[in-house]
Write a structure and sequence with these properties.
By secondary structure, the chain is an alpha+beta fold. The protein has helices at residues 3-8, 75-102, 165-182, 196-203, 264-272, and strands spanning 12-16, 19-25, 32-33, 40-41, 43-49, 52-57, 67-68, 108-109, 116-122, 125-131, 137-144, 147-149, 156-157, 216-223, 226-236, 239-246, 249-257, 279-281. The protein folds into 2 domains: 3-99, no CATH class; 163-289, no CATH class. The chain is elongated.
């Protein structure tokens, strides 16, 4: 993008540390407003990247979509585009904040960057959840006590899939468990595990799981000698979110209805395109006190 083309659009071109930057003065009637501080945003600075303009200042617009200049014929059109993108980001901010509150979480919005985050505690784990400008959530940080873990961070998920906080908590814990399993060269014996066979023997096959309680399933597998781990966390009712991971990372992650689930062995065989006979459940040592 040439300087003359940018100047024709009413942009002021400046030299930045990473290359050319273009400043758009919004004008009094077009200025954006930070909804938390109620301070006007009179101008937007873009990083020039080929034929795209990437918003880089002020912090309240960082992360908005890049704008392709093809078809943008005037400063007014560019102003309208950045205004529309900003308004849409505020819509997602309000929508996602309400969804977090409905789950019982406390949304936090940075007054300068308008970044939306929330803290979720599940057992010994603490998750920092962050939404981008388009309302997509990801795990920003995972902590166990005061230790920051390298597992799970960066994983994206759809918040609206979870109707109960317990379902989201179970899913995130299963995510961390799946990630930790990748770092283990072999499947170790574990303390405190309880098999579903033991539960059925203790409580009987007619025992029921209440519709709002959390529920997690872990199945360790061997496929042609390679270790895999299947984990499922209940979202609500008979709907689950499943994960399948091997030594090289995540293979599959989707939600499913229990009534349509083909079974772990059949699912794994279909996903890996191997005969069902090649998929075997792997047991562990009997749980100990």
């Amino acid at each position: 993008m040439t300087t003359s083309r940018l100047e024709q659009l009413g942009l002021r071109v400046e030299k930045g540390t990473a290359g050319d930057q273009a400043v758009l003065e919004l004008g009094e009637g077009s200025a954006l407003e930070n909804p938390l501080t109620h301070q006007p945003i009179p101008s937007v600075t873009f990083q020039v990247s080929g034929d795209q303009l990437v918003p880089v200042a002020p912090p309240a617009v960082v992360g908005l979509p890049s704008i392709w200049l093809e078809g943008v014929e005037s400063a007014e059109a560019l102003t309208q585009r950045i205004s529309d993108d900003f308004d849409e980001s505020l819509f997602h901010l309000e929508r996602r904040s309400a969804q977090l509150q409905a789950l019982g979480l406390s949304p936090s919005v940075d007054p300068e960057t308008l970044a939306l985050t929330a803290e979720l505690k599940a057992g010994a784990m603490s998750f920092t959840l962050a939404a981008n400008r388009e309302g997509h959530f990801q795990v920003e940080q995972v902590r166990k006590a005061e230790e920051v873990l390298t597992v799970g961070a960066g994983h994206r998920f759809e918040l609206s899939e979870f109707r109960e906080l317990s379902g989201l908590s179970s899913y995130l814990l299963a995510l961390v468990d799946e990630a930790l399993s990748r770092s283990q060269a072999a499947i170790p014996a574990s303390k405190g595990l309880v098999s579903y066979g033991e539960l059925a023997e203790a409580f009987g096959s007619q025992a029921l799981v209440p519709p709002r309680s959390s529920l997690e399933v872990l199945v360790q597998l061997s496929v042609n000698g390679e270790p895999y781990r299947f984990a499922a966390a209940r979202l609500a009712g008979r709907t689950f979110r499943g994960l399948l991971a091997g030594a090289k990372g995540k293979v599959w992650s989707e939600r499913f209805d229990l009534d349509d689930f083909p079974g772990v062995v059949r699912l794994v065989a279909d996903l890996l395109k191997v005969p069902a006979e090649a998929v075997k459940a792997v047991g562990v040592d009997a749980p100990q006190e």
